[in-house]
Amino acid sequence: MTQVPTIETQRLVMRAPMLEDFEPLCAFYASARAEFVGGKMEPEQVWRHLAVEIGHWQMLGYGRWTLEEKETGKAAGIIGLWNPEGWPEPEIGWGLF
Asked: Beta strand pairing status for 91-96 and 75-82?
């Protein structure tokens, strides 16, 4: 099992995505901001997407981190390398909540 590294800055923690990120992701993918990352998603789709984010690390050894605000502990976004099967090439992807 891949151990996802944790990276900290002065204001943020970059950590492994986890089930606790489901509600913030649902809110993000229900908003107009989701237009720029594939469009709005229903909660069932968000759950599957979160499973892909978690599994990406396990299957490929790299992936996207959840950004967490140090001050509040709230998820603030997701960022990192993205290259699932069928994707044209690896890319850096992000979504800021």
From this structure: antiparallel
